[in-house]
Amino acid sequence: MDNLKWLQKWYVSQCNGYWEHEYGITIVTLDNPGWRVIVHLKDTSLQTKPMEPVQIERSEDDWIYIKLENDSFYGTGGPGNLEEILQAFRTWATTFQP
Prior knowledge:
Elements lengths: L2 H12 L4 H4 L2 E6 L3 E7 L13 E6 L2 E8 L2 E6 L4 H13 L4
Antiparallel strand pairs: 1-2, 2-5, 3-4, 4-5
Helix pairs in contact: 1-3
């Protein structure tokens, strides 16, 4: 299953009549250019899951920054890195936490 389909399934699994009215997922473009993905984690099973920030700079157009802040997953990246940001969220969300 590709990352976008997986994200859609994850989103639907959070919808409980409340969460989707207060929280959700935002994917927007940046003007440098690039992408920003925000996934609200409040009231999900991922809310307290830890994650180390990620910062990868390959070139001016090939970079990602990933962090958790304010009960949300924040991923930003270059214009060709949206798939990589979605994969980072999926990998983190589905990795077992002891």
